[in-house]
Amino acid sequence: MLAVTSGRLATLPELRDRVELVEAGIDNLPFGHEGFDAVCCHGVLMYLDTPREALARLAEQVAPGGVLSVLAKNRRAIGVREALTGDYESAHRLIASGTDRSPGNLGLETRGDTPEALDELAAGHGLTPLAWQGVRIFHDHLDDTWTPGRAAYEAAFELEWAASWRSPYRDLGHLVHTLARRPERSRP
User: Fold this and answer.
1) In CATH, what number does 34-181 get?
2) Residue 86, CB half-sphere, CA atoms under 13 Å: how many?
């Protein structure tokens, strides 16, 4: 991913001098408490046993007025993708068991979170939760053979965007996107 991003940055002179790519795990972030305007953790928490320590480390990096953006597997939607693809036996097993784990896109078992639990963890580290979205609601089960024309793609995008903010639709998104803001420092 770093190589792909580096290649893309090379074609964007307006950005390449403003972006530093760093290879590090959540356990060994090399930043101290520098404070960033935006800290993103997308597609990572599902591979961890628990999000608690990771979110604590990430929250430390958020500057006053900054945001923490988390994109995680939606625990509420475990089994939905299987049902949409016609794997009813797996869908039934996952839904009836109430499990927080299921196979992910890479074939690995991944863990899901609820937006409320992620918001609670962020709030516990001094951040104010903002509205959350469901992601990949109606199109998650489609594979790479789905190649819509421009108009169909735009219509699908608009549908996903509209549904992403509204329950019950957002509750069925394969992913949840939560945001939390660190309050500005009070001025004397």
Assistant:
1) 3.40.50.150
2) 1
3-class state of residue 93 by DSSP: helix
What is the residue whose two structure tokens read 């800290």?
39
What pLDDT digit, counting tens, does each position of 67-92 carry? 999 999 999 999 999 999 899 999 99
Dmax over Cα atoms in the chain, in whole Å? 62
The span from the CA of 84 to the CA of 142, in Å, is 9
Can you give the pTM of this predicted structure? Answer: 0.90
Neighbours of 20 (CB within 10 A): 5
Contacts for 59 with CB less than 8 Å, ≥ 6 apart: 39, 68, 122, 125, 126, 127, 180, 182
Q: What angle (nearest 5°) sits at the alpha carbon of residue 134, between those of residues 129 and 137?
A: 180
pLDDT of residue 186: 56
Q: Which of 175, 54, 173, 23 is nearest to 110 (CA)?
A: 175
**Strands 62-73, 175-181: parallel, antiparallel or unpaired by DSSP?**
antiparallel
Residues 6+ apart with CB under 8 A from 163: 134, 137, 138, 169, 170, 173
In the chain, domain spans: 34-181
Smallest Cα–Cα separation from 74: which of 156, 170, 179? 170
Q: How do residues 22-63 score in pLDDT, each as one tens digit? A: 898 888 888 877 689 999 999 999 999 999 999 999 999 999
